[in-house]
Amino acid sequence: MEAMRSPELAGGGRAKATSLRSRFGGRLWSAAALPALLLAVVPLAGGAPGAGDAVTIAWGLAPGDCAHYRVFRRSDIGGRAVVVPEPLNHFNVFGYELDAAGELVQPPPSYGAAVRRVLVVPPAKPVLPGATWRRAFEILDAPGVEGFRIEGDFTFVGAEAVDGTPCWRVNGACRLAGEGRGGPPSPTYRVKSGSLTTRAWFDPARKVLLRGETELELALDGQRGSQDTTYARQERLELTEVLPSAPPSLKKKIAAAIEQGVAYLKGHQRPDGGWGIDAVNLEGETALVVLALVRSGVLYNDPTVVKGLELVRKTPFRRTYSVALAILAVEAAYTPLEEIRESEDVLDHPEAFRVRQRRLPPADQKFVEGAVAWLLGHVLAQRRWSYEDPKGSWDNSNCQYAVLGLSGAMRCGVKVAPEVWQAILEHWVLAQQSRGRSAKRLVADAHGDARELACKTRGWMYNDAVGPATVEADPAYGSMTCAGIASVAIARALLEDQKRLSAEWARRSSESLNDGLAWLEANYSVRVNPRRGEAWYYYYLYGLERACVLAQARRLGTHDWYAEGANLLCAFQGAEGNWGSSFPETCFALLFLKKATPPMLSK
């Protein structure tokens, strides 16, 4: 599921730098191309501050509120123009991500977001019209690029109206240069030189950026064998809405989003019963869609589900992801409807939730048994899995899905030996970072009383090929940390159910879970995959749901992760009911919204 994607700056080739305005026709957006998106910007007739009046330009978002922007952009890499398709480009700012000066405290999730960090920062003091100030930003964590510095002069132009809304306008003219430190361990490029122009319009009434524009030009030195190249980018940000942290209508929004997502998936089924075009992962993609549909409330005897399951059943077992998802799809079809309905309250009333045994007919029982045999026959040493070759390189994404498949099989009555779960538990506990930063978590007991727990922020990585798993060289990231938490919780619960969990491994697994949750709290985000930005975002959100349900974490720190994530997903949904650009991304969004993971509550 978690496939590597090339960063936007991966394009090579030497090209002579030309200006943004000549490259893109002398203006940011042509009126012919985007007539409905242009906003009228005119001087205010009588709203400008007086010569002696200083104004404060600031953000006013509550911690859980989110400013949701549409992003329109054009890029040019090495002389090759790239127009990013609409409408799935977004930028979001949560109130908890802003410090007292209005600066984003979270690492930028992408190269473009590193530039937006400069755009959205207001002056940290009252300013007069015409006032100028200088700000410098170190960007040491932009993916694919060595650390670089942005330094510029900013001017408070004065009052202007954006589509009739009175705003304060701030212009910026910046220079960029490489710092030669920070950034990824093996960057693709180093910033040699560059310029950045920004124009921002802040709404003083709502205390939020209403609109922003950037123009960027860079000369880049190629690293790791990449050629030197140029990079140019133009962007427009337009505020769509401010999403409150817990709107009264959230349940209705979620229900409508799920309904539209289900309709989208049902409307794109192929005549043979499948989904997708990836020949390698075709059966896994189809199984994932069936799982998402059934968990979203589509009945097991719905023609869409019936056709999808028929294709899953007759496809040979070939890959870990696909075999595990096949088990989960078949299991979902026999999950009692009352359990699916109760999943909505699984976090608020975990003591009332009951996982019921699935009752499969002989043919499907045999199918699940065969899938389990395949998984156990294609395992590496120490209960690790690769894509399909038991001699291949293991990774924690495949390991996670094997664990999910095996646990789903046990809910179908297929036995998996305690020795298997013990080896799985040992792998995940030992694969966690060996050291982390000290932290404290508030943990609620069964009566709702909270106690403070001392922890270390220790996450998980993709595999051990990236170096020592320590806090100093932290390769851990969000989706893999969620995989670790979920897998430890599953193995621990099943060993406990079978009365095979030793005191030592009860202690070590409890410590592992709390430290993993502490890592998620310290790196908390629902708008990006922590430490991986926009890569595998929807995969991460489904992992976050799974980890928090299995660990019975109603909140992460002060955050209602489900409300914040669901609110954002409702805003992200496309006009057709889809999320992202693939069927799996839509499935992951639906599974998050439905809180679809059955908790592994011990008997």
What does the model show?
The chain is of the alpha+beta class and 603 residues long. The protein contains 15 helices and 12 strands. It has helices at residues 20-23, 111-119, 250-266, 282-295, 303-314, 320-333, 337-342, 362-377, 396-411, 418-431, 478-497, 503-522, 537-550, 561-572, 583-593; strands spanning 41-43, 66-77, 80-83, 90-94, 132-139, 148-162, 165-178, 189-203, 208-222, 229-243, 437-444, 450-457. Strands 1, 2, 3, 4, 5, 6, 7, 8, 9 and 10 form a 10-stranded antiparallel beta sheet that branches. Strands 11-12 form a two-stranded antiparallel sheet. α3 (250-266) packs across α14, α6 runs parallel beside α9 and α8 runs antiparallel to α9. The protein is globular, with a radius of gyration of 25 Å. The two termini are 32 Å apart. Mean pLDDT is 85; it is low at 3-40 and 43-47.
Tell me the layout of helices and strands.
Layout: H1 20-23, E1 41-43, E2 66-77, E3 80-83, E4 90-94, H2 111-119, E5 132-139, E6 148-162, E7 165-178, E8 189-203, E9 208-222, E10 229-243, H3 250-266, H4 282-295, H5 303-314, H6 320-333, H7 337-342, H8 362-377, H9 396-411, H10 418-431, E11 437-444, E12 450-457, H11 478-497, H12 503-522, H13 537-550, H14 561-572, H15 583-593
Antiparallel strand pairs: 1-6, 2-3, 2-4, 2-10, 5-6, 6-7, 7-8, 8-9, 9-10, 11-12
Brief description of this entry?
The chain is an alpha+beta fold.
Query: How many DSSP E strands?
Result: 12
Continuous helix count: 15
**Which sequence of SSEs, written as H and E, runs from N to C?**
HEEEEHEEEEEEHHHHHHHHEEHHHHH
Q: What is the terminal-to-terminal distance?
A: 32 Å
Helix % is 25-40%
Spans where pLDDT lies below 50 across 5 or more residues: 3-40, 43-47
